[in-house]
Amino acid sequence: MIEVVLENRCGGCGDCVDACPSDVLRLGAGGKVVIAAQADCQTCFLCELYCPADALFVWPEVERIAGITAAQALASGQVGAFRRDHGWDEHAATHTNQHWRMGAIFERARLQAIELAAARTARPEEGRSS
C-alpha cells in the first residue's frame, strides 16, 4: 500500500497521479503529490515505477496501512528499488525491463477496482429512509 510521499523529492510532475489505476494520488495545493485515498491503493507499484524522482514509497502490505514514515522509508534502502529493479529510465543499462509481464495482473486489478466502485455506488446509504 502507498505509505508516504517524500515531499522534498517530489517535483510535482504528476506522472504517478496519471499512472495510478485507483486515483489514490492527486496534486496538492502546493503542486506536490499527496495521498488522497490511501485505502484504495491496490499496491500495484505503478506510482513508484513512474516517479522519476523516487519520491514515493509503497509497502508490499496490501490489507492495511503500515504507517511507515519518510525516515523509515529512506532507512529501508528500498526507495527507488522498484524502478531500478525493473530497468526503468537510468537503470535500463543495468537491469532488463520485464514489467510488461505484469499486464494481465494490472488489467485484472483495474477491472476489480471498477467492480468495487460500482458496488459502492449501488449500495443504498445506511440510515436513509425511503
TrEMBL record:
Which UniProt keywords are listed?
Answer: 4Fe-4S, Iron, Iron-sulfur, Metal-binding
Q: Which Gene3D superfamilies match?
A: 3.30.70.20
Boundaries of every 4Fe-4S ferredoxin-type domain copy: 1-30, 31-61
Asked whether the UniProt record includes Metal-binding among its keywords, one would answer: yes
Q: Which InterPro entries did the record assign? A: 4Fe4S_Fe-S-bd (IPR017896), 4Fe4S_Fe_S_CS (IPR017900), Fe-S_Ferredoxin (IPR050572)
- Protein biosynthesis listed as a keyword: no
- Give the Pfam families listed for this entry: Fer4_7
Q: Which domain of life is it from?
A: Bacteria
The residues the entry assigns to the signal sequence are none
Q: What is this protein called?
A: Ferredoxin family protein
Q: Which organism is this protein's natural source? A: Caulobacter segnis
Instruction: Print the organism lineage.
Output: Bacteria, Pseudomonadati, Pseudomonadota, Alphaproteobacteria, Caulobacterales
